[in-house]
Amino acid sequence: MRPAFWLASLLFVAACSEPHSPAETKAAPPAAATVDSAGFNSTTVKSLPLRQLPAGVPRQPGKVLEMTQWTDANGPNLLLISRSAVQTLPAGPDDPNDVQSVSLYARQYVQRAGKWKELWHLQDGVERCAFDMWLGPVPGAVAVTDLDADGRTETTLVYKLVCRSDVSPADLKLIMREGSDKYALRGHTVVQYDSVPAAQRIPADACCLDTISAARLEEEYELLTGRYETEKEFRQAPSAFLRFARQHWRRWVVEQEMGQL
Asked: Is the Cβ–Cβ distance between 64 and 82 less than 8 Å?
């Protein structure tokens, strides 16, 4: 399994609008509604039908996969996740077989003075994949929270990138946004490949792959399963953000199905 997994890892190419590292459902409301004095009520988080964008929202690239709306201290918010059509490239000197590429987009808008203004956007993708490919949000994993109780919500996405020819783990990314601030966990899923339940393979401590030597990972590639690279991007965030991200990662890290585009 290892050679195909390492080859698949090399095929992921991400492009993100933010200046740092590559980027990077129905929205699942909290179990109990919360209202804080700063102006966020969790019951306002709603999944919208995908057939028609709200009036004034720009046309999205590709097919809309998820659309979530809510209200916080900034006013009405709208999150859109879309995916491009798969592009097939014919075999060439560098690729003996046909390869495929696909892109994922996420955009959050806030309504001000009756007009939708983009708050942030993300673009990521799988490129030149010659194996089984999949890219998209983990169903149900979008979360809208106000963990620091300032009335401005945090938006958390979890999405999966796949290019593999076996049951190797997929790439998994958790992206949390609070306005222009971005925090991320990037690592790998847990897959079911034998009689041991996948949930039992979730590591007790999923951090941090960047502290494990490349030589050890080469010898014990199972260490990648369910783990992410680092928590460094959360150093300047409120402590509640990282606590939530760790819990959310653990909740969604197991692959429930092996999808293919």
From this structure: yes
Q: Which of 70, 78, 83 is nearest to 30 (CA)?
A: 70
- Three-state secondary structure string covering 79-109: EEEEECCCEEECCCCCCCCCEEEEEEEEEEE
Each residue of 107-117: pLDDT tens digit?
A: 999 999 999 99
Report angle CA 19, 176, 231 to the nearest 5 degrees: 80
pTM: 0.84
Which sign does the torsion angle of CA 189, 194, 197, 201 carry? negative
State the residue for tokens 């034998």: 194
Q: What is the pLDDT of residues 39-73, one digit of tens each?
A: 688 999 999 999 889 999 999 999 999 999 999 99
Reading the block at residue 209, the tokens are 């792959």
The tokens for 229 are 């690279």
Asked whether 42 and 30 are in contact (CB, 8 A), the reply is yes
Q: How far apart are CA 47 and CA 27, in angstroms?
A: 6
Q: For residues 37 and 111, is the Cβ–Cβ distance under 8 A?
A: no
Upstream peptide bond of 129 is cis (omega within 30 degrees of 0): no
Residue 62 is classified by DSSP as S
Q: What is the DSSP string of 190-230?
A: B---SSS-GGGGS-SS---GGGS-HHHHHH-GGGGTT-BS-
Is 130 within 8 Å of 144 (Cβ atoms)? no
Q: Are 42 and 3 in contact (CB under 8 A)?
A: no
CA dist 242 and 185 (Å) reads: 10
